[in-house]
Amino acid sequence: MRQTAGSTASGACAKCLAQNLDLGIPTAAADIQMGPGTLMVVGVDLQCCGNSAGAWEEDRRRVEAKAIRSAVDAHWQQQAAVIVSGDFNNVQGMVPIDLINGVGTAPAHRQLARAEAFHVDGKTDWTWDGRGTEFPSRAMDHVLHSAALEVLNATVFDTELLDAETRAKLGLDAELSKQCSDHRPILVDFRWRDSR
Question: What is the DSSP letter of 131?
C-alpha cells in the first residue's frame, strides 16, 4: 500500500516523512470464509518510535492509519465482519487506533471496537515489554473488530506470567515470550452475533 504525505509535518520532518512513506505501509489482508460468513482480516505494523510531541513517526502512524481505514472501507462489501489487528506502536496515544476504528467518521455499523485484552492477572494490559528501553510497557498491539463479532475472551499471552503448573502442562519455558519478541500476542475468541 502506498500513500503520499499529507501531514502537518514541516521542513525536514515533512521531507523525512515523505521519503519514509515511499517505502509503503506494512499491511496484509485476506477474505476468509468462516462458518456462515466471510471475514476481512487485516494485519498491520505501524511506524515505531517517535515518543515526542511533533515527531514525524507519529505523523506517519496517522497517515498509515488513515490509509488503512480507507482501504478497509473501499474493500468492505459483502464481508460479514472485519478484524484489524497487529502492532499499532501507539506511543503517543490512541489516535491511530481511533482513525482505524472509524470513530466520528464511519457510520455506526462500520465502526470497529477494540477487544480489551488482559494478562492472566486480569488487570494489566501491556503488550509491549518496555523493560530496558525508553518506552514504558503498555498496550501497543490491538485487535479491532466490527459489530458482527462478539468477544468471548481476550488474553495477552505471556509465558513469563503463566503459573509453573500451566507452563509445565503446556511444555513452555518462562522465558519463551521474552526470547521470541518484545511484543506479546493477543489471543481473542470471537463468535458471530445473532443479529448478523
Answer: T
C-alpha to C-alpha distance for 84 and 191, rounded to whole angstroms: 16
pLDDT at 4 over 80: no
In eight-state DSSP terms, residue 138 is B
The secondary element (H helix, E strand) that includes residue 19 is helix 11-21
Of 82, 19, 40, nearest in space to 9 by CA: 19
The DSSP H or E segment spanning 97 is helix 95-101
Comparing C-alpha atoms, which of 88, 83, 28 is closest to residue 58?
88
- Residue appearing with cell numbers 518484545: 182
Q: Are β-strands 81-87 and 37-45 bridged in parallel, bridged antiparallel, or unpaired?
A: parallel
CA separation for the pair 27, 41 (Å, rounded): 11
Q: Which residues in 62-72 are b (16+ Cβ under 10 Å) and which e? A: bbbbbbbbebb
**Which of left, alpha, beta for 122 (phi over 0: left; psi -120 to 50: alpha)?**
left
SS3 27: strand
What domains appear along the chain, each with residue ranges and CATH number?
A: 25-192 (3.60.10.10)
The model carries a pTM of 0.87
Is the dihedral angle over the CA atoms 22, 141, 107, 79 positive or is it negative? positive
- Residue 75 CA to residue 161 CA, distance in Å, equals 39
* Mean pLDDT along residues 134-148: 94
What is residue 23's DSSP assignment? Answer: T
